[in-house]
Design goal:
The structure is a homodimer of 199-residue chains. The first copy, chain A, is an all-alpha fold and 199 residues long. At the A-B interface, helix 6, helix 7, helix 8 and helix 9 of A face helix 6, helix 7, helix 8 and helix 9 of B. Chain B binds a DNA duplex (30 and 30 nucleotides) through helix 3.
Chain lengths: 199, 199
DNA sequence: GACAGTACGTACCGGTCAGTAACATTGTCA
DNA sequence: TGACAATGTTACTGACCGGTACGTACTGTC
């Protein structure tokens, strides 16, 4: 990622400082919460200074939004991996995805979905951090409903929404209960729900 | 609630200031989040002064915990009302409770479960605000599993946990999507899940 | 070697955070 | 009237908040 020789790549010429800042922000924002972490702590751990942060990010809120956009990209990678593992079989796609969610959600130190958490922290409509989560959840809902229809559910919208509720419940329960929590049962319950929802 | 004549009631001699403070704290903490609200704003809206707050509550964290204990009491009132409305019929008890959750969760300005939100805001183990939520969820899980067993579920623990996931999902989705969100389908999905889980 | 542009640091801003000390005032009951 | 508890008033602390004006060191180009 050196500063390319012929300047042929338009964007993504992130200087080192910005990358370090975003890396530290990702870790701290996810683990401790966005409001709980000050920019001073971020720049300290990143080994840079505050002006460096504000040269790359217009505000703390936008830094949080950047973190969440990265988070969302990683989310869709995991989701698509489950989809591609079971081509043409939406039921197995959903179960595969939820199995992994359930596994991760009962690991020690699990902190739920970064986007969900951010929306809880910032209820104010239009907040840049909140918007990332809202858009992600809306798209996820759309896809789950589509997959439910593909499965042949009697009421695809209801099933898709039910699956979304289970997923969000796993995110939250995972960080509330820790190991041994109800999130471990998310895939099993999703399977039961799907079974009961087919025509 | 006058200052009783013979001083026969030990506790609950809350002076007016503390009540007003707690009332404002409940509103602001729930709607905007605990970290987002400063003690100055609370005392301002309560029409009292900061020393009055700190005479009744040892810290902001403890004020938040007090708000959550009140919140939890109201929660169990709603839960028990659903239980008492359908004596001996745990399935209808659960559905009744979730129907009300689903209704509330799609109202404008809905902000989810105060205890869940607080746990998201304070991931640090042992935080007084977090403890209230953790205990509440643990007890709720216990009761849901017991009700699932009473229903005659093939795997009561799985069904109880599934119901808990749906509930938490409704809390979160309610504040993420607002009206028209997936939380409206929580009771329907719970009913399907129960149906699929009976022996 | 002069220059330009970039990447970064030093030092600081006003404001707000939770929390407190010291003292004055009010209301209530005996 | 006197005692006491509840509350208000004022002013303050030190730490931290997000954010910025300004100076400097490095790098490549001609």
């Amino acid at each position: 990622m050196e500063k390319s020789d012929t300047m042929d790549q338009i964007s993504e010429i992130k200087p080192r400082a910005a990358e370090r800042i975003l890396g530290v922000a990702r870790k701290l924002f996810y683990l401790e919460g966005i409001r709980a972490v000050g920019v001073d702590e971020i720049v300290r751990q990143a080994g840079v200074t505050k002006p460096s942060l504000y040269r790359s990010f217009p505000s703390k809120d936008e830094l949080a939004a950047s973190y969440l956009r990265e988070y969302e990209a990683a989310f869709w990678e995991r989701f698509d991996a489950a989809v591609e593992a079971h081509p043409g079989d939406p039921r197995q796609q959903v179960i595969a995805f939820l199995s992994r969610v359930g596994e991760r959600a009962v690991m020690v130190g699990y902190r739920g979905c970064g986007m969900t958490n951010a929306a809880v922290e910032y209820p104010e409509p239009g907040h840049p951090a909140r918007l990332v989560g809202e858009n992600n959840k809306r798209e996820l809902r759309r896809r789950l409903r589509a997959m439910a229809a593909e499965m042949g559910a009697a009421d695809p919208d209801t099933l898709g929404d039910g699956l979304l509720l289970l997923i969000e419940g796993a995110y939250i329960s995972g960080q509330l209960f820790g190991p041994g929590g109800p999130a471990a049962a998310v895939a099993r319950n999703a399977d039961l729900l799907i079974e009961a929802s087919l025509k």
